[in-house]
């Protein structure tokens, strides 16, 4: 049962007891309070400021806030919060005591915490055991540790070894400014004894970064995200971790990157058995090494694949990029060899640079791709369905950056029409139209300029329509980027929607 409002701080006393808002029913007040939070169960400093203001509306709103446990179930604490809360002689104790007062109001609800632990003062470092004791005695369903000191990870692991936690989402990042910036191997080691599944039997989502990762097992984990600085000792460790024997329920795999040479140098050399995982449906890889790591996997149920951050700059020039594209095409052909193939292929941040690279890439893939995310229309300059059958059954194309790359529809309409004419069905087959989405307008463009451009775009769209493609001009950049988002369960990775892309500064 939540503590009564008499325990509330004097800083949020209501401004009036005669407010007309006091006439609202309790259920509606709770909905209004929740609507002010960016994340309903993980309140940031911004959310907490709004929450404080809402508690000052009137006495009823204040009482409703303190008597609704679910409003107090989660916090997002960054370094500035820790510095402020920890002012005084016992900084860590002050932080923990403040957190305890907040979570005490959550009653029996499951708890969530995201906290930045990049402590800069010796006093806070010496008092970390106080924080460990606090964490160990609460029932968390969501835990996100940012800049967790490696020695604290070791202490947490030791104490968690004798406690069963109901945590469903766990994120650990051991990057810390107190470590050696030149080290090549993370200091923290994610190794639990007893096993991870004993300590976190309900875990479904796991994010790890800046830690050494020995092979581990978990029967219920469905989403695994290895960050860009996660450390696996060798390819065999990677394969052992991803295998169905280790993670039988895995559905989602996000590889944020591996150290140079981890996978690319082993292509066609390492004699290692391919891991066939029957339940993995969604995969995101960032960087060339993560993409090459797919050579050791076969995913017959794969439905969504996204490749990011593979470009001339990342591989060492245009000549090497051609070789990388050829290698990855072969790897993906094996990866997507199952009967379902891969229905959604997201390549808008691949960086292939040329239509010829796209043609090489698709020439090795089997038909079955239904939805394709690409940067612009330049892809159609070299595509030939006789050598690129993978795209014959496409239903949807989303072009994310036509305006900023110059690959607009009017500039490439001839290439598109040629490709569409080759794609047309044979006599007796039912024609399947294709829908192409594009954002053609610069942000802030005047209405007059837009009206001058429209005839050129509409004329090109009419030519495409005659060949079986419906062109949809989206009004906002946010909308076009949201179209390439995909429902992922990962806690620390979000597909690059408009809010994450600096499209206006390209």
UniProtKB/TrEMBL annotation:
Gene3D superfamilies: 1.20.1280.50. This is Uncharacterized protein. InterPro entries: F-box-like_dom_sf. SUPFAM superfamilies: F-box domain (SSF81383).
């Amino acid at each position: 049962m939540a503590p009564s409002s008499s325990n509330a701080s004097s800083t949020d006393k209501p401004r009036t007891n005669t407010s007309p808002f006091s006439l609202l029913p309790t259920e509606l007040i709770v909905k209004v309070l929740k609507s002010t939070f960016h994340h309903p169960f993980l309140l940031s400093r911004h959310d907490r400021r709004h929450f404080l203001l809402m508690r000052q509306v009137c006495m009823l709103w204040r009482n409703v806030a303190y008597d609704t446990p679910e409003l107090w179930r989660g916090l997002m604490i960054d370094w500035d919060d820790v510095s402020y809360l920890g002012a005084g002689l016992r900084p860590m104790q002050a932080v923990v005591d403040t957190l305890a007062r907040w979570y005490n109001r959550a009653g029996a609800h499951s708890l969530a915490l995201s906290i930045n632990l990049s402590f800069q003062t010796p006093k806070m470092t010496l008092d970390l055991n106080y924080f460990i004791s606090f964490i160990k005695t609460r029932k968390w369903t969501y835990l996100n540790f940012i800049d967790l000191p490696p020695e604290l990870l070791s202490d947490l692991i030791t104490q968690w070894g004798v406690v069963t936690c109901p945590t469903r989402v766990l994120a650990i990042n051991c990057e810390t400014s107190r470590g050696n910036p030149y080290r090549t191997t993370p200091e923290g080691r994610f190794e639990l004894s007893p096993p991870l599944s004993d300590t976190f039997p309900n875990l479904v989502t796991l994010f790890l970064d800046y830690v050494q990762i020995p092979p581990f097992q978990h029967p219920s984990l469905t989403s695994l995200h290895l960050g860009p600085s996660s450390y696996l000792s060798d390819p065999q460790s990677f394969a052992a971790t991803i295998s169905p024997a280790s993670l039988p329920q895995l559905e989602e795999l996000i590889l944020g990157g591996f150290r140079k040479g981890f996978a690319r140098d082993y292509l066609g050399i390492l004699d290692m058995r391919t891991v066939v995982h029957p339940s993995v449906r969604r995969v995101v890889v960032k960087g060339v090494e993560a993409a090459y790591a797919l050579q050791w996997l076969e995913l017959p149920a794969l439905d969504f694949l996204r490749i990011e951050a593979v470009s001339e700059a990342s591989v060492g020039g245009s000549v090497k990029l051609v070789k990388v594209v050829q290698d990855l095409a072969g790897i993906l052909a094996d990866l997507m060899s199952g009967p379902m193939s891969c229905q959604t292929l997201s390549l808008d941040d691949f960086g292939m640079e040329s239509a010829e690279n796209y043609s090489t890439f698709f020439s090795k893939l089997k038909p079955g791709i239904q939805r394709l995310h690409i940067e612009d229309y330049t892809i159609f300059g070299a595509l030939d369905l006789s050598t690129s059958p993978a795209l014959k059954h496409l239903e949807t194309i989303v072009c994310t950056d036509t305006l900023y790359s110059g690959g607009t529809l009017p500039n490439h309409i001839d290439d598109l029409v040629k490709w569409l004419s080759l794609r047309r069905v044979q006599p007796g087959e039912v024609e399947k139209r294709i829908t192409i989405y594009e954002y053609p307008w610069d942000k802030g463009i005047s209405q007059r300029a837009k009206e001058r451009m429209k005839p050129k775009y509409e004329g090109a769209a009419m030519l495409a329509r005659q060949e079986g493609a419906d062109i949809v001009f989206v009004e906002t950049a946010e909308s076009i980027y949201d179209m390439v988002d995909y429902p992922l369960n990962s806690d620390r990775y979000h597909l690059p929607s408009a809010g994450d892309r600096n499209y206006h500064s390209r």
